[in-house]
């Protein structure tokens, strides 16, 4: 993403929020973007371009979270050990 001019931020700690805002369009819901969420668990997301809703999400979720986050300006090296540890933690939590 960095190579393509996309700004990336790291939120301190953990967040389970599944939401995105793109050019005045918001998407929120429970689904991960995977087969389990869409076909087995039948989770869904809701999308809207209704300006008051998008602005409320920005004001109450995105802007406060961004204020606590640190911008990543260089690619991060992820070791095999870190990747395996993340998989274990995901299973435990």
Q: How much of the polypeptide forms β-strand, as a percent range?
A: 15-25%
Counting helices, strands and paired strands, the structural category is: alpha+beta
End-to-end CA span = 28 Å
* Strands, count: 5
Rounded to an integer, what's the Rg over CA atoms?
16 Å
Strand order of the largest sheet: 2-3-4
The sequence of SSEs as H and E is EEEHEHEH
Largest sheet: 3 strands, antiparallel
Return the domain count. Answer: 1
In DSSP terms, counting alpha (H) and pi (I) runs of 4 or more, how many helices?
Answer: 3
Task: Name the shape in a single word.
Answer: globular
Q: What is the residue-mean pLDDT, rounded to a whole number?
A: 87
Runs with pLDDT <50, length 5+? none
**Fraction of residues in helices?**
25-40%
Could you describe the 3D structure shown?
The chain has 93 residues and is of the alpha+beta class. The chain has one domain. 40% of the residues lie in helices and 20% in strands.
Keywords:
single chain, 93 residues, alpha+beta, three-stranded antiparallel beta sheet, two-stranded antiparallel sheet, 5 strands
In short:
The protein has 93 residues and is α+β, with helices and mostly antiparallel strands. The protein has one domain.
How are the secondary structure elements laid out?
Blueprint: E1 8-10, E2 19-22, E3 25-29, H1 35-40, E4 45-48, H2 51-68, E5 70-72, H3 80-92
């Amino acid at each position: 993403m960095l190579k393509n001019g996309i700004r990336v931020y790291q939120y301190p700690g953990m967040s389970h929020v599944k939401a995105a805002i793109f050019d005045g369009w918001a998407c929120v819901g429970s689904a991960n973007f995977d087969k389990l969420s869409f076909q087995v668990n039948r989770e869904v997301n809701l999308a809207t371009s209704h300006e008051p809703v998008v602005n409320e999400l920005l004001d109450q979720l995105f802007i406060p979270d961004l204020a606590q986050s640190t911008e990543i300006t260089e690619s991060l090296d992820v070791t095999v050990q870190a990747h395996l540890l993340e998989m274990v933690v995901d299973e435990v939590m």
